[in-house]
Amino acid sequence: MPTLNLFTNIPVDAVTCSDILKDATKAVAKIIGKPESYVMILLNSGVPIAFAGTEEPAAYGELISIGGLGPAVNGKLSETISEILHIKLSIDSSRFYIKFYDSPRPFFGFNGSTF
């Protein structure tokens, strides 16, 4: 159930969006160690963002997971997602924040219930 919600001020075309979704799904699943079938990625493009006082290309992400997170994993996720955004959208890693949430099972719903 890892869920990565990404926001960027860059408008993203359908092909690039699809590539980012696929790459991020594979990366999150591999790094956290959960099946791709549980991973959800959301990409919100063209969102107004000011970072360090400018509106140059930037991004923000939130990754929520039930377990699987920790200092080493979070560092690898930050590095890998930042790399994807740099390759696909030319967003410098210094203009990307990502926040990690380790959610308790009853605080995340799925299929009409909770985990």
Automatic annotation (TrEMBL):
Compartments, record wording: Secreted
Family annotation (PANTHER family): D-DOPACHROME DECARBOXYLASE (PTHR11954), MACROPHAGE MIGRATION INHIBITORY FACTOR (PTHR11954:SF6)
One Pfam family from the record: MIF
Gene3D superfamilies: Macrophage Migration Inhibitory Factor
Keywords from the UniProt entry: Cytokine, Isomerase, Secreted
GO molecular function: cytokine activity; dopachrome isomerase activity; phenylpyruvate tautomerase activity
Catalytic EC class: isomerase
Cleaved signal peptide residues: none
Entry EC number(s): 5.3.2.1, 5.3.3.12
Family assignment from sequence similarity: Belongs to the MIF family.
Identification of the protein by name: L-dopachrome isomerase
Chief location bin: secreted
GO cellular component: cytoplasm; extracellular space; nucleus
